[in-house]
């Protein structure tokens, strides 16, 4: 099992990071081209802003698009590092040993699952057509939130219901499996470590988002 794990994790992390970053940049570009385009903002701001104000907003947004694309690799790097740090810290608590670089590579592999979720979401909106702000706010593919009508869900529950989805389960499973391979350990032990590290951090983040939403709702 250790040899299999070593072969799986023996890849060029820089190359995969650049490929994933490129995927996100392309998806972001297509999202702006097909969904968040000029027509979308004209519909969104019609009645609350003049045509000149809308034109200026669209022009300013287009002028700063390159900044958005440049920030994508930075945000991705920070996200992977945080996930890896959470899992690495949990490993220390369980007295398991591996390099942070190896854990980072496991987290980077798991990010491929998020790419598939992003592709699914973009495809859904393109096929659906006539996307509203409500659609963008509420829809996440294969999530628990799709069971309920958006109008009956309190705003503070939107994010938790979106988090509980099939892609998040697969992401967790890839993290756990990769860690089990890395440590030459059982999958159940990998699950415990990831649950204690990444799982706890995800729960804390979800509670922070819920708290902020409650403050906004009650203000």
Task: Describe the structure concisely.
The chain has helices at residues 2-9, 13-34, 38-45, 51-63, 65-93, 100-128, 133-138, 155-163, 166-183, 187-218. The protein is mainly alpha-helical.
Features:
globular; 0% strand; 10 helices; mainly alpha; 219 residues
Question: Describe it for me?
Answer:
Helices cover 79% and strands 0% of the residues. With 219 residues, the protein is mostly helical. Helix 1 (2-9) crosses helix 9 and helix 6 runs antiparallel to helix 9 (166-183).
List the SSEs and their pairings.
Layout: H1 2-9, H2 13-34, H3 38-45, H4 51-63, H5 65-93, H6 100-128, H7 133-138, H8 155-163, H9 166-183, H10 187-218
Which word captures the global form? globular
Individual helix count: 10
**Beta-strand residue percentage:** under 5%
Helix percent band: over 70%
Q: Give the tally of β-strands.
A: 0
Give the end-to-end Cα distance, rounded to a whole number of Å: 55 Å
pLDDT below 50 for ≥5 consecutive residues: which ranges? none
Specify the biggest β-sheet.
Answer: none
What value does the Rg take, in angstroms?
A: 20 Å
Q: Structural class, from helix and strand content?
A: mainly alpha
For the residues shown, what is the average pLDDT? 91
Order of helices and strands: HHHHHHHHHH
